[in-house]
Write a sequence for this structure.
């Protein structure tokens, strides 16, 4: 439903309340509402227990968000991405703000948001350049307004792009130590890439690069999105898949070459990651 312009005492807004198909609700990221507003006077809006996620851009003016017990002062160019199942409120200041917002949801969005937080994503951030976010808002508004018979799929594509951009632009590397050790951690990554076939322990890695192992664990995951052990496992599994597809080496020798030990352990680990045994994977190709 396109509500055109809504004139009220508090805001003037344009919004689309969108009804996705049953397929979109159960299988896709889907749009619930999209709109823009210009505040007409200072006011506070409060919400809680909504099955929704909210992204909005402060396009002009200033205001504040209260979320998870913290108050965030917002100004033009700031962005917000929050879980609406938690209580929150936002308010414009006397410098009346303009907002562009998107309410959306999906069955896997809770885990995506957890990953967003794990990677350092903040409820409020300033991306510097709003072009990508503005373009996606415009695209979504246009698609939601259309009669395109595959618009749910097009909306899914744009919401996926929005989440990708959020992951990319909102990460706050707010520790100066992260920057100062970045080169060291790249060296750690390169060492893992080249020596995955060897037995590597976290303690040995920390000693080799003169980094506290607890600090290494935390910062490596911040920088590369995986723990040291999971990164190493990913490299080993990827190389094993290559050898299974493109060589005639035995499964046992591949496990040894990739640093995953004897056949039983290799097979069990491979199946845990890929869902099938190494032999079954080889037969697929």
């Amino acid at each position: 439903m396109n509500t055109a312009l809504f004139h009220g005492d508090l805001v003037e807004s344009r919004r689309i309340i969108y009804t996705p198909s049953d397929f979109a609700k159960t299988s896709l990221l889907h749009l619930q509402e999209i709109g823009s507003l210009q505040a007409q006077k200072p006011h506070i809006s409060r919400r809680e227990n909504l099955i929704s996620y909210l992204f909005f851009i402060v396009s002009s003016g200033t205001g504040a968000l209260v979320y998870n017990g913290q108050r965030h002062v917002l100004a033009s160019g700031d962005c917000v991405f929050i879980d609406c199942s938690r209580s929150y409120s936002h308010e414009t200041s006397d410098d009346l703000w303009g907002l562009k917002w998107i309410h959306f949801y999906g069955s896997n969005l809770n885990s995506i948001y957890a990953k967003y937080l794990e990677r350092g994503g903040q409820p409020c951030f300033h991306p510097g350049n709003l072009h990508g976010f503005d373009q996606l808002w415009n695209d979504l508004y246009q698609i939601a307004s259309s009669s395109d018979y595959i618009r749910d799929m097009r909306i899914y594509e744009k919401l996926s792009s929005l989440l990708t951009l959020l992951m990319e632009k909102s990460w706050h590397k707010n520790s100066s130590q992260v920057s100062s050790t970045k080169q060291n951690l790249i060296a750690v990554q390169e060492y893992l890439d080249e020596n995955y076939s060897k037995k590597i322990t976290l303690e040995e890695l920390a000693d080799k690069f003169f980094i506290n192992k607890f600090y290494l664990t935390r910062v490596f995951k911040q920088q590369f999105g995986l723990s040291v052990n999971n990164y190493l496992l990913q490299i080993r599994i990827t190389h094993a898949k290559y050898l299974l597809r493109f060589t005639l080496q035995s499964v046992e020798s591949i496990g040894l070459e990739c640093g995953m030990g004897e056949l039983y352990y290799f097979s069990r680990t491979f199946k845990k990651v890929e869902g099938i045994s190494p032999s079954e994977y080889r037969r697929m190709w």
User: Anything to note?
Assistant: The two ends are 49 Å apart (CA to CA). DSSP finds twelve helices and eleven strands in the chain. Residues 1-7, 175-179 have pLDDT under 50 and may be disordered. Residues 151-169 form the longest helix (19 residues).
